[in-house]
Amino acid sequence: MNSELTKLQKLHLEQNEITHFKDRKVFCDLPSLRDLHLGDNYLKDINFDVACLKNLRFLDLERNKFEFVKTHDLMVLNQLEARPDRTTNLIVDFNLNPFTCDCKISSFRTWIHSTNVTVRNKESLMCFHDEVNPLPILEIDMSQCSAAIAAATIMFNTATDNHYGLGGGGGHENSGLAQHTATLIFLLIVLSMILLGLVIALVYVSRDKLKFMITPVFDNVAKKVQYTSIKDEDCPEVHV
């Protein structure tokens, strides 16, 4: 979008059946943009550049098709909020999206608790096991998603430690490094859990064979201990 609307502050694109943007920098020619309304569309992710919108204060994404939010997109929102030249807080609205109640939204929930971005009506955010019974995202049990939560937490903390770097030339590299590091840690955690699960499964499946192999060893040790005890008892006492 090549535009002369450099002073435009509000843009309403609701109900336009938008599924994605072919040009990621579609809004970057609007440097003064403050409010971007993209509600009631078919967006599944933030596939447009928001980092270039340094004055953005409100991003409306309600009533779209988000089933989860990519960790990278959440980091970008954090980066935008953390810009040193910002004068207002960033507000984001994700309400009335069909989020799924599984580990895919674990990073999103972790982000909601930790971010400085204002998440509008976050207590009203719902996810779905089915279309009939929505559950509050902030209240669902995610104990089975510990690996994903740990990876997301590390990623967000690493990005924080690097101060996001949007103002300098190395910012993108730092953000990318943080993302790759957190992804690697996540994969290691997942692989470790899989390996542990395989070991437990192998032991369980082979329990009879292991018992057959180990029992004679224990019996042999027990006999040796018994023989040693008998031998000690047979030794006469010597009085000096």
UniProtKB/TrEMBL annotation:
Give the LRRCT domain ranges: 97-146
What sections of the protein cross the membrane?
184-205
Q: Name one GO cellular component term.
A: cell periphery
Q: Does the keyword rRNA-binding apply?
A: no
Which Pfam families does the UniProt entry name for this protein?
LRR_8
Q: State the InterPro entries in the record.
A: Cys-rich_flank_reg_C, Leu-rich_rpt, Leu-rich_rpt_typical-subtyp, LRR_dom_sf, Wnt_signaling_inhibitor
Keywords, ordered alphabetically? Leucine-rich repeat, Membrane, Repeat, Signal, Transmembrane, Transmembrane helix
So which residues are the signal peptide here?
none
Protein name (Swiss-Prot/TrEMBL)? Leucine Rich repeat protein
Give the organism, scientific name.
Musca domestica
